[in-house]
Amino acid sequence: MPSEEEMQAAADATARAREAMQMQSQNIQWPLADDTSAGGSGIPILGFGTWRLDTSNATESVSTAIEAGYRHLDCASAYGNQDKVGRGIANGLAKVGLKRSDIWVTSKLWNNDHGGFETVSAALDSTLSDLGLDYLDLYLMHWPVAQHGGKNVIEYLNTWHAMEQLLETGKVRHIGVSNFSPNQLRNLIRNSKTTPAVHQFETHPYLQQHDWIQWQQNLGIDVTAYSPLANLNPVYSGRDDDNTPPSLLENGIINGIAQARGCTPAQVALKWGTIRRTSVIPKSSHADWIREDAHSLECELEFEDFHQITEIEREHLKRYSNPGRNWGVELYDGLDDA
Fold first, then answer.
1. How far apart are CA 322 and CA 120, in angstroms?
2. What is the pLDDT along the chain (338 residues), one digit of tens a residue?
C-alpha cells in the first residue's frame, strides 16, 4: 500500500509531467508506445470489449477477435453474455492453436454481489463457470456501489477486502476497480493491504483526464479506457443534448490526422489511447471492424498529432456513462463532466 508520502510524490510527479509537456511540446518528440503491455500488471494494451456485444454473434465475434490478434478480452457479469463469450474464447484459442495462458481475461463483480468473502467468492465462481475458465487474469469491482434490497449505496471497502482474499485462492491473478472517484480511490488505498492493479473507466478524446491517469500511473496503477471511441456505441445515441459533440469518427481533427497518416479514424483514436499507456477495449460485432481496430497499433502518429487531439477537449468535453442519477448516488466526484 502506498504511503501518504508516496501518494503526494505521485501528485508532484504528475504536476511536473504536465509542466514539462506544456513547456516542451513544440520541440520534443512524444515517446510513442509500441509495447504490447500497458504497464506493470502485464495487461495487454489492446483488448476486445464485450459490453452490449450482439448476443446473436457474440461467440463468433470473440473468436474472430482472437484470430485477429487480440490477446485481452474484457467481460462482466452484468453484460449477460459471458457464456457466449466463453465459447468464443474456446473456439478462438482452438483455431489459432493457443493456450488459456496466452490470453488475458478480465471480468467484473456486479453491484448486487458486494459483501463479504462468501458472497464475492460465489460471484466469481459463477463468472468462471459462465466463461468456462479456471481463473481470471483480472477481477474488477464494477462500481463503488452496492445494491441491496433495491437500494443503491456507496460501499466498496468491505467488498474490496473480500476481493483481496480471492488472491489467495488462485482463481484471480490481479484485482482492480472501475469507475472510482479520486477520493474513493485514495480512501481504498489508505485502508487496504492491496493497491488496485488496474482502474478501468471512461476516457477518450472527448474526456481525456490526463492528470487523473498520470496520478494513477505514478502509483503503479494501470488504466484501461472503456468506450475509447467515445460516442460510437449506439447506447449513447439517445443521450444527445446541446453539449453533445459529433461522432468521434466524424471529428475533423481525427479525420485530418487519419488522412495524413494513412490510418482510419478509429485507428487514430485507439492509437492515441495506447500512446498514453492506457489499454483500450473497443467493441464490434463486425469482423471487418474487429480487424481494423486490431491494426491500430500499426498506426504511426507524430507528436503534433497527439497535441492536436489533446486540443479536441477544449471544444468538446463529454462524459457518456454516468448512471448515478438513476441509482440515486453521486459518482465521479471531482472529475471532469461528473
1. 24
2. 676 666 665 555 555 445 434 433 332 223 334 456 667 789 999 999 999 898 889 999 999 999 999 999 999 999 999 999 999 999 999 999 999 999 999 999 999 999 999 999 999 999 999 999 999 999 999 999 999 988 999 999 999 999 999 999 999 999 999 999 999 999 999 999 999 999 999 999 999 999 999 999 999 999 999 999 998 876 776 555 667 899 999 999 999 999 999 999 999 999 999 999 999 999 999 999 999 999 999 999 999 999 999 999 999 999 999 999 999 999 999 999 87
User: Do residues 64 and 92 touch, judged by C-beta distance below 8 A?
Assistant: yes
- Helix (H) / strand (E) element for 198: namely strand 198-202
- With CA atoms as reference, report the closest residue to 185 among 12, 16, 37, 333: 333
Burial (Cβ within 10 Å: 0-12, 13-18, ≥19) of residue 146? buried
Residue 271 neighbours by CB distance under 10 Å = 27
C-alpha cell at 138: 483480472
Amino acid identity for residue 227 in this structure: S
Q: Which grid coordinates are listed for 155?
A: 460501499
Question: What is the reported pTM?
Answer: 0.90
3-state secondary structure of 196: coil
Whole-number CA gyration radius for the chain: 19
Query: Coil, helix or strand for 152?
Result: strand
* Side chain identity at residue 175, one-letter code: I
* Catalytic residue, candidates 70, 79, 139, 332: 79
156 is catalytic: no
Q: Are strands 198-202 and 222-226 parallel, antiparallel or unpaired?
A: parallel
Residue 280 exposed, middle or buried by CB count within 10 Å (0-12, 13-18, 19+): buried
Q: Which of 289, 310, 300, 291 is nearest to 261 (CA)?
A: 300
